[in-house]
Amino acid sequence: MARIGFVGLGNMGGPMARNLAKAGHEVAVFDIVPDLVARCVAAGATGAASAAEAARGAEVAITMLPAGQHVRDAWLGAGGMAAASPPGAVLVDCSTIDVATAREVAAGCGRPFLDAPVSGGVMGAEGGTLTFMVGGPDDAFSAAEGILKQMGRAAIHCGAAGAGQAAKACNNMVLAATMVATCEAFVLAERLGLTHQALFDVMSKSSGQSWSLTSYCPVPGPVPGSPANRDYQPGFAAALMLKDLGLAAAAAGQTGTATPVGAQALALYRAFVENGGGGADFSGIIAMLRAGGNAG
Ligand code: NAD
What we know:
The chain is an alpha/beta fold.
């Protein structure tokens, strides 16, 4: 069993840290919200007074924070986790942040550091079924893989520092685009007098098939577990999809890459969030499309 420091105990980090404690690890946890620390302590973790204290003595130190600035501050700021953790520790950030900041933090730590963003959402964090997309050195990946797999079912080593964030940005750009296209198809089908089930039955066996359709269908009925069956609550919040599309757009800008469909998806999700949809599941954008919103 390992000594693990875990910082950032929100919707994702809380259940991830609790799963590590339940697996028998010695987990020292910190969040700026004391109640979140208390929930993890009740599940067997030990409360730490700061991020640095959580990292002190840890064999594996992990962050799960909102954005790049939080990650930079936690690792590199005064009294940061990089300085506090022992020299042999494996340093892992599971937050979703921009590629450039992930590389900067990895370089700033001055020793093996992994960017390991996740897909799978809150249900995946709670159920220990996340997928980790990992960037960083081979030996650090090998050292962390077992721990990551206790919080998820897959850990994919994507390449050097930043590669995990790059994979996440590309994946979620495609996810947003296929969701918008799938929503558009259902709305068009409604106007053409086609039932949702008929379109689903055809597309799920045809070239219009995608995860957005067969695992996360944006209309109620065909996929009983999808958020559409629960009035788009809860799920993967549209505000988080907008954040991820912004990270993809930043990466596209930095690399001079044309991503016109990704840019259009970003504009649509921005309009949806600005009109109050930020807390809804991202498939809820079908309501805006049905109402004629096109942001274009
Ligand atoms: P959240 O806001 O629920 O949790 C973030 C936590 O970080 C909060 O509890 C906050 O108090 C804490 N925090 C902020 N600054 C801190 C500091 N300086 N020291 C210690 N703790 C601090 O967010 P979340 O939904 O858990 O998401 C975390 C990350 O995971 C984000 O980068 C997000 O993009 C990514 N993510 C989220 C989901 C999802 O479905 N929620 C899915 C995949 C990836």
